[in-house]
Amino acid sequence: MSYFLNLLMSGLVIGSLYGLIAMGFAMVYRATGMVNFAVGEVMMMTAYISYNLAQVPGLGFMGVFLAMLPISMLLGWAIERVFIRPMLGEPMFSRVMVTIGLAVVIRSAVILIWGVEPQPYPRLLGDEVIRLGEMALYPSQIFSLCIMALLCLVMWAFFRHSRVGIAMRATSNNETTALLMGINVNRISGIAWALSSFFSAMAGLAFCLMFALEPEVSQMGLRGFPATILGGLDSVVGGAFGGLVIGVAENMAGGYLGRGLKEIAGFVLIIVVLMVKPYGLFGQREIERV
């Protein structure tokens, strides 16, 4: 029983990272209808920025956390304003290719500035093991779970009760109608990219608190994308849930069936779910009249 519980908890921890990344993918898709393939690279860049902030004497974890909030959102807004907004009206394929090119540029810039050697990230939350019954967790793992749960709650309230969230839902349903109703679509797009960058930053911070900091952090972006598909590309909270499901599925498969099956367990799960629910677990079904 102890082995099962530890597999479950470690699966939820890695799933929370997938979930945060999936929320970044889904936020942009929900507002603009496009897939941002630079999520992993934004995660990597913000992780390195937080690393520099962590070196400041006396700043501590809360200082780094609070500093990353405006920095990450400003970075996301700048990316949208400089690279994405000029592409409005262009084919979706061209806009997606811009994000792929942007990912390459960000990765190269990070390597040029910080190098390729792994950096030991400061243990801002300490290394003391916290025991919950038969399970043992580090503070960084608890942070990852808690920040994802908090952001899910905030996003649920944001889309249901805030004017900006409702405007974002309207824009995702029909951009032309939203424009006719007086919604500033450009502003909505900028907010979506800023929030997406913040989710990526939280994923990067949580990852580095648990592991080392290196350019390969960006690969987590592609590993988190299946969680977006599973939860539903247009569902931010659904993407978080999809990340948890995939994280647990991978860990259980690796623990009971063999490590070789760990990497494919999530994709097998996605295939099975999409055969039943093509739009994901929480995705919105699109109905077209012909």
TrEMBL record:
Its main location: membrane. The chain crosses the membrane at residues 6-28, 60-84, 96-116, 136-159, 191-213, 225-249, 261-282. It is found in: Cell membrane. It is a multi-pass membrane protein. Keywords: Amino-acid transport, Cell membrane, Membrane, Transmembrane, Transmembrane helix, Transport. CDD domains: TM_PBP1_LivH_like. The keyword Transmembrane applies. Belongs to the binding-protein-dependent transport system permease family. LivHM subfamily. This is Branched-chain amino acid transport system permease protein. The lineage of its organism: Bacteria, Pseudomonadati, Pseudomonadota, Betaproteobacteria, Burkholderiales.
